Amino acid sequence: MITRREFLKISAFASLMGLGGAFGIEALEKKQGKEVIKDIKALKAKRWAMVIDTRKFKTQEDFDKIIKACHKPHNVPEIINPLHEVKWIWTEDYEHSFPGTAEQYISKEVKERKFLLLCNHCDNAPCTRVCPVKATFKREDGITMQDMHRCIGCKFCMAGCPYGARNYNFLPPRDYIKEFNNEYPTRTLGVVEKCTFCNERIDRGLLPYCVEASEGKIIFGDLFDSNSEIRKVLSENIVIRRKVELGTQPMVFYII
Amino acid sequence: MYDGWKIILGLVVFVIIVTLPFTMSVGKTYVQPKPSLDTPEIQKMEKKQCIESKQYMRESHIKLLYSWKDYATREGKRVYIASDGKQYEVSLQKTCMKCHSNKEKFCDECHNYVSVKPYCWDCHIEPKVGGLK
Fold first, then answer.
1. A29 falls in which pLDDT band (50, 70, 90)?
2. Which of residues 11-40 of B touch A (CB under 8 A)?
3. What's the pLDDT score for residue A33?
4. Is 70 exceeded by the pLDDT of residue A220?
5. Which long-range contacts (CB under 8 A, 24 or more apart) does B57-60 make?
6. Which residue of A has its CA nearest to B60?
7. What does the pLDDT look like over A43-79, one tens digit per residue?
8. Is the dihedral of CA B53, B57, B63, B65 positive or negative?
């Protein structure tokens, strides 16, 4: 018959063995490669933000050029049906872009003007708060990033986002991509996607595609750097943001 | 022994089921998977060396890729410093598949053999040999 004392001794020894085993296996595991680091060319900022000068957009061509410059390299599918469409950057009129800003009284010119919309990379992003798997999260530089590896397609973020910046892949996206960019992945059926502020380009020292294609109509920079170009533009112009009353702190500013 | 025949019958069935993987392959010839390194890109290389040693890549490539995935998408770290000090871009499509442009004869060779189906290719674009779906 085993005594209580003996039983405790044995179980204590066994649990020690268990713990030791875990450490042992960890130590034996091969680690190769020195480390993974940030590119030295990477652009650095505390809070990336964007100013869109809507006065400079004249023709539909101006918009199309920018939308194409984004959608093509990012392998965004072209789906005509608005129920299934996927878009990272798109256009909308004043009334639907800035509701609740006395839109019924504004000038005809502004009323008819189109506005370039995209993910606002909100400082207080509701999408990241509702995501149950942290697939969408805030990077240190303020970019609201979407990790497609983790997304389970629950669509909470789509409900959370007040700007309609998120689209669900209801259809297999590859069937709707005409030309593939082999340097960037596509998405798969059943994940949510959106603009990522071209973080993959920023990490390599390049500006986002839309900024590059806009030829000065879009200004991109560090909002927290008082000497940056974007701060200069913000101090010289009166800007508005979409649905500020919701407290999301959007990082995309519009000069009207 | 009560109900001895039931117990023995049960044991026999159990042993048959457990040994099925072995008994089913009796008589079949063993074909070793041979991932091919014969791509134009690798042929051009002076020193035919992957980013790490062959043994490490063979055993742990999925661990490396998994860590790369997190470093790149979650931390924005996109430069890998290998054991020999060389730097590589952290990217499946732009680094790995640039040399191993023969997915069917390289990746699939072993993956099919051990019946694993990595879902990398649901999103990541494989090099154009067999063409895209």
1. low
2. none
3. 63
4. yes
5. B59/A30, B60/A30, B60/A32
6. A30
7. 999 999 999 999 999 999 999 999 999 999 999 999 9
8. positive
Contact across the interface for B132 and A145, Cβ inside 8 Å: no
Beta strands (DSSP E) in chain B are: 79-81, 87-89
Q: For chain A, what percent of residues have pLDDT higher than 70? A: 97
User: Distance from B128 to chain A by nearest Cα, in Å?
Assistant: 9
Is residue B1 assigned to a domain? no
This model of the complex carries an ipTM of 0.82
Count of domains for chain B: 1
At A134-154, the pLDDT tens digits run 999 999 999 999 999 999 999
**Pairwise CA distance, residues A106 & A97, whole Å:** 14
CATH (domain of A239): 3.30.70.20
Q: Which residue among B51, B74, B79 sits closest to A147, beta carbon to beta carbon? A: B74
Q: What's the structural domain count of chain A?
A: 1
A20 — pLDDT class (breaks 50, 70, 90): confident
Look at residue B131 and tell me whether its pLDDT is greater than 80. no
Inspect the interface and report whether the beta carbons of A186 and B125 lie closer than 8 Å. Answer: yes
First to last CA, chain B: 62
Residue of chain A minimizing CA distance to B128: A182
Domain interval for residue A87: 48-255
In this complex, do B123 and A185 lie within 8 Å of one another by their Cβ atoms?
yes
Show the DSSP H helices in chain B as ranges.
Answer: 4-24, 40-44, 54-70, 97-99, 107-113
Contact A32/B60, CB-based, under 8 Å? yes
